[in-house]
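Hi U.,

Before I forget, here's the chain from the pilot set. I'm dumping it here mostly so it's searchable later in email.
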Amino acid sequence: MHNLPALNRTLALWRSHRDTIALVPTMGALHAGHISLVKLAGRRADRVVVSIFLNPTQFAPHEDFTNYPRILRRDISQLTAVKTDLVWSPSVETMYRSGFATRVVPEGPAMVGLEDAFRPHFFSGVATVVAKLFIQCRPDIAVFGEKDYQQLKVVTQLARDLDLNTRVVSAPTIRERDGLALSSRNAYLSTQERTAAPVLYRVLSDCARSIAAGGPINRVLEDGRAAIAGAGFALDYLEARHADTLAPISARREGPIRLLVAARLGKTRLIDNVAV
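Structure:
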């Protein structure tokens, strides 16, 4: 479905039957991680809407918007197989009409020195498009994966702060057998890079175990950063943060801990996170 009047008619019909609606926002190039979100949505609501929109406002000029995979027919085939009720695939012109001049600029978890430090444009683009999707689809729940953990916290805050009447539901990260978090960008990895990529998760897991066992957080992270760099990554960050607020954390007693990492392997930027 590509136009708002048709979307509105379908949603109105469902609402007249008192169906609950779940939304799974995606940028397409779907993989097993996305499908797990769709299946979770189907267990939580009567109707499932999956949006496929490659959002240009969350890409900087030097990033991979032009090369990002676009495989809509295959995506729709996968979604049909898991009984998705509606695929909402608007055009850029539908989402950002001529003269569009409004942006959502989030703070809080969007300004904690993680992704925002390296992609300062990113969360405004995410927050704006997610707000529009929530308003367009009016879902009871929206399902987001934990792999993009800072994004999960940003959209949760967004829905709460703007009274959007959508509950954000988180879903665990889906991984390959060797631990690599599923991502559409994994397709960019060369054969050699794909062999090295699981080091990121192994280091995260080792750090989490060490901290859980009482190891000093700063020293554990220093060792983890060295291990990641030694495996050939260009590290952006490896941080221990409060799992709810994403504030820096230096001791276990300060609250639940989430370890978050971002690093480049060749031309591919990978992110991941684990709980301690």
